[in-house]
Amino acid sequence: MKKEEFIALGISAELAAKAEEASLKELGGYVEKTKFDEVSEENKTLKKSVSDRDKQLDDLKTANGDNEALKKQIEDMKQQNAEQEKAHKAELAQLRLDNAIETALTAAGAKNTKAVKALLDVSKVKLGEDGKLSGWEEQLTAVQKSDAYLFTEKQAKNHFRGYKPGASADKKPGAEVDMSKMSYEELAAYIENNPDAE
Question: For residues 120 and 137, what is the distance between their CA atoms, to the nearest angstrom?
Protein backbone atom coordinates (compact mmCIF):
# COMPACT_ATOMS: atom_id res chain seq x y z
CA MET A 1 0.00 0.00 0.00
CA LYS A 2 1.04 3.57 -0.56
CA LYS A 3 1.42 6.23 2.11
CA GLU A 4 -1.74 8.03 0.98
CA GLU A 5 -3.78 4.84 1.35
CA PHE A 6 -2.52 4.36 4.91
CA ILE A 7 -3.34 7.97 5.75
CA ALA A 8 -6.85 7.47 4.33
CA LEU A 9 -7.25 4.61 6.80
CA GLY A 10 -6.58 7.04 9.65
CA ILE A 11 -2.90 6.32 10.30
CA SER A 12 -0.64 9.25 11.10
CA ALA A 13 1.70 10.49 8.36
CA GLU A 14 4.84 9.31 10.17
CA LEU A 15 3.49 5.79 10.72
CA ALA A 16 2.08 5.75 7.18
CA ALA A 17 5.56 6.43 5.75
CA LYS A 18 7.02 3.57 7.81
CA ALA A 19 4.17 1.26 6.82
CA GLU A 20 4.65 2.12 3.13
CA GLU A 21 8.36 1.30 3.40
CA ALA A 22 7.60 -2.04 5.10
CA SER A 23 4.97 -2.83 2.48
CA LEU A 24 7.42 -2.17 -0.36
CA LYS A 25 10.03 -4.45 1.28
CA GLU A 26 7.45 -7.19 1.69
CA LEU A 27 6.41 -6.99 -1.97
CA GLY A 28 10.02 -6.83 -3.24
CA GLY A 29 10.03 -10.35 -4.69
CA TYR A 30 6.41 -10.24 -5.82
CA VAL A 31 5.55 -11.47 -9.31
CA GLU A 32 2.22 -10.50 -10.86
CA LYS A 33 -0.25 -13.37 -11.06
CA THR A 34 -0.70 -12.86 -14.79
CA LYS A 35 3.06 -13.23 -15.39
CA PHE A 36 3.16 -16.30 -13.13
CA ASP A 37 0.27 -17.89 -15.04
CA GLU A 38 2.00 -17.27 -18.37
CA VAL A 39 5.28 -18.82 -17.23
CA SER A 40 3.48 -21.74 -15.59
CA GLU A 41 1.48 -22.49 -18.73
CA GLU A 42 4.58 -22.24 -20.90
CA ASN A 43 6.44 -24.57 -18.53
CA LYS A 44 3.67 -27.20 -18.78
CA THR A 45 3.66 -26.99 -22.57
CA LEU A 46 7.44 -27.26 -22.80
CA LYS A 47 7.51 -30.31 -20.53
CA LYS A 48 4.87 -31.98 -22.68
CA SER A 49 6.84 -31.11 -25.83
CA VAL A 50 10.03 -32.61 -24.40
CA SER A 51 8.26 -35.84 -23.46
CA ASP A 52 6.71 -36.01 -26.96
CA ARG A 53 10.15 -35.54 -28.54
CA ASP A 54 11.63 -38.25 -26.32
CA LYS A 55 8.88 -40.63 -27.39
CA GLN A 56 9.52 -39.81 -31.03
CA LEU A 57 13.24 -40.52 -30.60
CA ASP A 58 12.46 -43.84 -28.93
CA ASP A 59 10.17 -44.73 -31.84
CA LEU A 60 12.97 -43.91 -34.29
CA LYS A 61 15.44 -46.11 -32.41
CA THR A 62 13.09 -49.06 -32.47
CA ALA A 63 12.14 -48.63 -36.15
CA ASN A 64 13.75 -51.33 -38.29
CA GLY A 65 12.65 -50.00 -41.65
CA ASP A 66 14.68 -48.91 -44.60
CA ASN A 67 16.21 -45.49 -45.07
CA GLU A 68 13.26 -44.06 -47.04
CA ALA A 69 10.77 -45.02 -44.31
CA LEU A 70 12.95 -43.34 -41.68
CA LYS A 71 13.22 -40.15 -43.77
CA LYS A 72 9.46 -40.04 -44.18
CA GLN A 73 8.95 -40.63 -40.45
CA ILE A 74 11.38 -37.80 -39.62
CA GLU A 75 9.60 -35.41 -42.01
CA ASP A 76 6.25 -36.31 -40.44
CA MET A 77 7.69 -35.62 -37.00
CA LYS A 78 9.10 -32.26 -38.10
CA GLN A 79 5.72 -31.24 -39.46
CA GLN A 80 3.96 -32.45 -36.31
CA ASN A 81 6.42 -30.52 -34.12
CA ALA A 82 5.94 -27.35 -36.17
CA GLU A 83 2.16 -27.64 -35.78
CA GLN A 84 2.52 -28.15 -32.02
CA GLU A 85 4.75 -25.09 -31.72
CA LYS A 86 2.30 -22.98 -33.73
CA ALA A 87 -0.57 -24.13 -31.48
CA HIS A 88 1.54 -23.38 -28.40
CA LYS A 89 2.29 -19.84 -29.59
CA ALA A 90 -1.41 -19.22 -30.30
CA GLU A 91 -2.35 -20.56 -26.87
CA LEU A 92 0.24 -18.37 -25.15
CA ALA A 93 -0.89 -15.28 -27.12
CA GLN A 94 -4.50 -15.95 -26.07
CA LEU A 95 -3.41 -16.34 -22.43
CA ARG A 96 -1.56 -13.00 -22.57
CA LEU A 97 -4.61 -11.31 -24.12
CA ASP A 98 -6.91 -12.78 -21.46
CA ASN A 99 -4.58 -11.64 -18.67
CA ALA A 100 -4.31 -8.12 -20.15
CA ILE A 101 -8.12 -7.90 -20.37
CA GLU A 102 -8.50 -9.13 -16.76
CA THR A 103 -6.00 -6.53 -15.57
CA ALA A 104 -7.70 -3.74 -17.56
CA LEU A 105 -11.14 -4.72 -16.22
CA THR A 106 -9.85 -4.69 -12.66
CA ALA A 107 -8.29 -1.26 -13.23
CA ALA A 108 -11.60 -0.02 -14.67
CA GLY A 109 -13.39 -1.04 -11.47
CA ALA A 110 -15.32 -4.07 -12.74
CA LYS A 111 -17.17 -5.81 -9.90
CA ASN A 112 -17.24 -9.16 -11.72
CA THR A 113 -14.65 -9.49 -14.48
CA LYS A 114 -16.18 -12.68 -15.92
CA ALA A 115 -19.60 -11.05 -16.30
CA VAL A 116 -18.14 -7.94 -17.94
CA LYS A 117 -15.89 -10.01 -20.21
CA ALA A 118 -18.95 -11.92 -21.44
CA LEU A 119 -20.45 -8.62 -22.63
CA LEU A 120 -17.33 -7.57 -24.53
CA ASP A 121 -16.62 -8.43 -28.16
CA VAL A 122 -13.12 -9.75 -27.44
CA SER A 123 -12.51 -10.52 -31.13
CA LYS A 124 -12.13 -6.76 -31.74
CA VAL A 125 -9.51 -6.37 -28.98
CA LYS A 126 -5.87 -6.96 -29.88
CA LEU A 127 -2.78 -7.02 -27.67
CA GLY A 128 0.17 -5.11 -29.08
CA GLU A 129 3.85 -5.96 -28.65
CA ASP A 130 4.10 -3.13 -26.11
CA GLY A 131 1.47 -4.85 -23.93
CA LYS A 132 -1.27 -2.30 -24.68
CA LEU A 133 -4.75 -3.25 -25.82
CA SER A 134 -6.06 -1.78 -29.06
CA GLY A 135 -9.80 -1.48 -29.61
CA TRP A 136 -10.27 -1.76 -25.87
CA GLU A 137 -11.56 1.70 -24.98
CA GLU A 138 -14.52 1.48 -27.36
CA GLN A 139 -15.55 -1.91 -25.97
CA LEU A 140 -15.18 -0.84 -22.34
CA THR A 141 -17.01 2.46 -22.82
CA ALA A 142 -19.94 0.70 -24.49
CA VAL A 143 -20.30 -1.77 -21.61
CA GLN A 144 -19.88 0.95 -18.97
CA LYS A 145 -22.74 2.90 -20.59
CA SER A 146 -25.08 -0.05 -21.09
CA ASP A 147 -24.34 -1.91 -17.84
CA ALA A 148 -22.95 0.66 -15.42
CA TYR A 149 -24.06 -1.41 -12.41
CA LEU A 150 -21.21 -3.86 -13.14
CA PHE A 151 -18.62 -1.22 -12.24
CA THR A 152 -17.82 0.47 -8.95
CA GLU A 153 -18.48 4.16 -8.92
CA LYS A 154 -15.55 6.40 -8.27
CA GLN A 155 -16.77 8.56 -5.48
CA ALA A 156 -15.55 12.09 -5.17
CA LYS A 157 -14.59 13.32 -1.75
CA ASN A 158 -17.33 15.32 -0.13
CA HIS A 159 -16.51 18.86 0.84
CA PHE A 160 -18.98 20.05 3.42
CA ARG A 161 -19.73 23.67 3.93
CA GLY A 162 -21.51 25.16 6.84
CA TYR A 163 -20.95 25.32 10.55
CA LYS A 164 -17.66 23.90 11.77
CA PRO A 165 -17.45 23.14 15.48
CA GLY A 166 -14.82 25.25 17.20
CA ALA A 167 -14.67 27.78 14.39
CA SER A 168 -15.09 31.47 14.99
CA ALA A 169 -18.64 32.76 14.52
CA ASP A 170 -17.29 35.77 12.61
CA LYS A 171 -16.49 33.68 9.53
CA LYS A 172 -19.18 32.84 7.05
CA PRO A 173 -19.21 29.33 5.57
CA GLY A 174 -17.70 29.22 2.09
CA ALA A 175 -16.24 32.73 2.46
CA GLU A 176 -12.60 31.69 2.77
CA VAL A 177 -10.23 33.88 0.81
CA ASP A 178 -7.17 32.58 -1.04
CA MET A 179 -4.49 35.09 -0.07
CA SER A 180 -1.91 33.46 -2.34
CA LYS A 181 -3.74 34.84 -5.38
CA MET A 182 -3.85 38.45 -4.11
CA SER A 183 -1.48 41.20 -5.12
CA TYR A 184 0.51 42.94 -2.39
CA GLU A 185 -1.88 45.92 -2.29
CA GLU A 186 -4.95 43.67 -2.10
CA LEU A 187 -3.35 41.59 0.65
CA ALA A 188 -2.43 44.66 2.71
CA ALA A 189 -5.98 46.05 2.38
CA TYR A 190 -7.52 42.69 3.28
CA ILE A 191 -5.37 42.29 6.42
CA GLU A 192 -6.15 45.86 7.45
CA ASN A 193 -9.92 45.24 7.12
CA ASN A 194 -9.70 41.72 8.62
CA PRO A 195 -7.12 41.71 11.45
CA ASP A 196 -8.22 38.21 12.59
CA ALA A 197 -7.54 36.70 9.16
CA GLU A 198 -5.34 33.64 9.08
Answer: 11
